[in-house]
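Example record

Each entry pairs one chain with its bound ligand, adenosine-5'-diphosphate.
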Amino acid sequence: MLADSNEPLKPLTAKREESSTEPLLKVEDLVKYYPLGRQGFFGAQRGAIKAVDGVSFELCRGETLGLVGETGCGKSTIARTLMRLEEPTSGAAYFKGRDLFALSKAAIQALRREMQMIFQDPFASLNPRMKVGQIIAEPWVVHSGIVPKEEQSQQVSELLERVGLPASDAYRFPHEFSGGQRQRIGIARALALQPDVIICDEPVSALDVSVQAQVINLLAELQTDLGLAYIFIAHDLSVVRHISDRVAVMHLGRIVEIGNEHEIYTRPTHPYTQALLSAVPLPDPEGRKGRNRIVLEGEMPSPIYPPSGCSFRTRCWKAESICSEDRPQLADRFNHGHPSACHFAEPHILATEKMAGSISAQTIALDR
Ligand SMILES: Nc1ncnc2c1ncn2[C@@H]1O[C@H](COP(=O)(O)OP(=O)(O)O)[C@@H](O)[C@H]1O
Ligand code: SF4
Ligand SMILES: [Mg+2]
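Structure tokens for the complex follow.
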């Protein structure tokens, strides 16, 4: 059941229920097309942008699912649709067993207590005319009664301190902060209603590498302390590794490979994942020496006219005729241990073992 939207908050230090294998969120065959309109006034429908084209996954309590793929592959559309900021074209999503797409307006508001989102550009999502304290307390105005007025200032102080900012920052405006600090404010606001899930849409993509690490470490700490689940979106595989339990790789509106973090980084079986991993920037020259960089030729195909069969076939060095005739489903057809949407899925171990080591080295460097 969704929580009562007016149920009082628990102390911020209270650990939530332990992670479990019971899915908190279940997404089934989610589709989102943006129609292109008609050609002329009476003309034919011009087709649609197939932003998300049949995506299924589950998210458990306390877990992080990394969602990775090039810009335009549909990551933010998934996030916005699950948050009910956009209507899906078809498909289903269940949050704590409840049909997300059948919720009334009032129930969507109640859902915000359970599911929150943070964005790539925290500045755009923070009202420049409001002081930070008001921004963080704003959800308590919408969900009235959960934090009594006289306790709000104390709760804001606690939230600010929880995200590593001094309580006095409540009296300052968003423009007075750096990008990393603004993202901390965005996180504090997302925590204000004590959600079970936060969808993090490229939360560190606009930040310097050292600040990225601080924000990722903060999110990881909060997860441990509060039992949060995250969908962590990024276009760079090296960013999600540190925080993800599982990783889903997306290409042109679909998940092409999904598995636990270790499998995806050390034994990727889809050529697209292998190419993305080979392009991860490595700080360690030793790692760089040993790897085979896979350079993808050509542009990402149009989501209006995706290729027949496998959507990756126009850039894939392994493509054969079956790849244009038959769309490969996400399945573990050769018992590699995790599903991959490729007719010829096979682990790419040699080129990635070194990479995996170097990516770990990079995340260790990020920790400092
Ligand atoms: N509101 C919209 N109207 C039309 N097309 C959109 C809209 N939002 C996103 N798109 C298109 O849908 C595709 C997926 O976009 P998006 O989900 O933002 O990708 P990502 O977050 O992976 O970069 C892109 O081709 C994008 O141009
Ligand atoms: S199905 Fe074919 S084109 Fe698609 S990734 Fe596999 S080998 Fe390449
Ligand atoms: Mg996006």
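Strands lie at 23-35, 48-60, 64-68, 90-95, 98-99, 115-118, 197-201, 229-234, 246-251, 254-260.
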